[in-house]
Amino acid sequence: MKKKVVGNSQYQKLANALLILQLLRKGPNTRASIARELGLQPSTVTYNINRLLEAGLVRQANTQELFQHGKEAPISLGRRAIALELNRDFGRVIGLELLADFGWASILDPSGSVLYSQQVDYPDRDGRTAQERFEHLVKTVVNQMVEKCGDSKVLGVGIALPGIVESNGQAIRDCWTHALKGTDLSEFFKRTFSFPVILENDANCCVQRYLFEGAAERQDNF
Hints:
Blueprint lengths: L9 H15 L6 H8 L3 H14 L2 E3 L4 H4 L15 E3 L5 E7 L3 E7 L5 E8 L8 H19 L5 E8 L2 E2 L5 E5 L4 E5 L1 H7 L4 E5 H11 L10
Parallel strand pairs: 3-6, 6-10
Antiparallel strand pairs: 1-2, 3-4, 4-5, 7-8, 8-9
Helix pairs in contact: 1-3, 2-3
């Protein structure tokens, strides 16, 4: 029996869950309001919310906080509406921007808020190959950021760098700033880190950030 590709597929369920998470980034909300704002069936919202609660990405919020975000607390003769919010303590994401002469390392919460950021200085060549130097840099900086995360779980690492990155996010086709060409880092990531690590072109990351923020702040270019 073939798996459905459209309709009530895993892809659609994931897409709905992401829409809900994106909406909850703006502040606490109720199931009924989420269904209304996203145009989803209440049963669809309930299904996804239950899964997100079980996973820990969403948690119950103080209903009073709805007023602080311009929401109206619903009046009902039945069960009182429960406010839900994104669990910003679910874990941390580490982001690296590795430019030509220096870089930046940041720690973010699940909402995308930057909690910490520092400049990254590159080590001397020391006779290492370009790949060895790059791997050493990534390992050193990521481990430093993991320590700063304390007891918070690290959900993953995103690395932005100039050049052409393969669609699997694990290999670099060409990156002149780090002298890398045809470099597959999948085995290095697998043996070095216990969480996923993804590579992406820096300009694409900038575009994704702009779209992630909902294009609220207008820029002339990326």
